[in-house]
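Predict the assembly for these two chains.
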Amino acid sequence: MPIIKAENLSYDYVRRDENDNIVDSIHALSDINLEIEEGQFVAVIGHNGSGKSTFAKLLNALLIPTSGKLFVGGIDTADESRLWDIRRTAGMVFQNPDNQIIASVVEEDVAFGPENMGVPTEEIRRRVDAALKTVGMTKFAKSSPNRLSGGQKQRVAIAGALAIMPKCMIFDESTAMLDPIGRAEVMSVAKKLNKEQRLTIIFITHYMEEAAQADRVIVMNKGKIVMDGIPREVFTETEKLTACGLEPPQMTMLAKDLRDAGLALPHGIISAEELADALRVLKGQ
Amino acid sequence: MFRDITLGQYYPGQSIIHRLDPRTKLLWTLVYIVSLFVADNKYAYGASVLALAAVIILSSVPFTHMLKGLKAVLVILIISVLFNLFLTDGRVLVSFWIFKITLEGIRRAVFMAVRLVCLILGASLMTYTTTPNQLTDGIERGLGFLKLIRVPVHEIAMMMSIALRFIPILTEELDKIIKAQTARGADLESGNFIKRAKAMTPILIPLFVSAFRRAGDLAQAMEARCYHGGRGRTRMNPLSMAGRDYAAIIIMFAYLGGIIVLSVLL
């Protein structure tokens, strides 16, 4: 059974006046059909306003679909009676590291989720220690979040989501406000969770280099899925990406330019290492 | 500009005062404040000053550090001392123009000063030796009985702890906004009081907008982590009273009794 399943999923942002008449309505998502298997690392990319963040909020039942169905771990997100089961299944890490840390001590913040769920005291302790260890923040357990770097804060936020023991983790542009070092920290933790704990990762980003590290890339544009496949396939369709307002990875562009200039490079190069290897092969001939 | 306020600033330490249960400290502080208003002669005031001095020494928070907390209330202190000094009737000692200083005035001014200083130092001693989290925990658990009269104790404690978490963030943001507006030519320094107050508008509006945005984000993050009010919540570090807490409470009753006896009998 897929962990996430969307059937004709649509969401409109509706603005109403005081008499409840619709003034304005924006289709953020229209007719999404999608299945994500357990254990996959999926990157969702798209231009601003492509609907990728709306999709993230629907997954956590922070928003309820306007029409269509969305199942998370087999539960319909529109089923209000199971709201807390959905939120336990899908952990979420948001964009701004400051605005998602609730407590003034790192470990108490990580404990916030399990405390809300009514987990027994000793079990909370175990979960907090394990979550902090996983993200490599044990050393800072007693620190104030204000003294941490952006990447460290985001790792605390990840630990906070981990402590509720979700099956799937949604990163809603969690790297957007970080410096390159912080981004690398978050990405490596996400990959570690995927590999070691078999967590399903949905990584929403607008950095192509991050998306290139996923198992599967979903490209969204104007509320629709326009491309869906392994990074190699998706990124080599440079024209299609550009049409969505996205810039393909630099190495793909460089390889394309070199190929246009007459070098016999293969298709599907997405990283610097791959390009270097291909050039070495070419030189050896 | 708001960095001088030390209320709510924890001074890390391992003293016996630090290790007391926050509920004990909360109760002690309340009783201490009451005792300051019960006291009405020099013996009772002397006793409360001595008690405070003893606790400050036990807490090992440097006294100079504590004095910083007084700076914020210096103006109020001076005003209340002056009012008491000049506006109390009684035996006139000195008089000039429309002012007169009376013996009772001096007495009341000194008592008022002692009372205010002890009040501030006592209250801030609690915040120096208690982390904000322990404090809100203490309020939530210690004042839980108020739920019976429908006081939303959990919500108040949660709001307090979030406020404490965001004070440094918003202070930093305020600094940034001030710099940004100054860079755009905003004049915040010159002019009279009204003019300067008006000049604050372009600083306060962005600050409020940003605070509301943060509040929205935070609410979402809390919901995503299964927050649904205080019902059914458990704690990672539940509070528990130790022997020293019971000892402190016994001492507290002895102290309160002593103050009452001193005030009534002498």
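Residues 16-130+239-265 of chain B form one domain. Chain B touches chain A at residues 131-133, 161-162, 164-165, 168-169, 214, 217-218, 220-228, 232-238 (CB under 8 Å).
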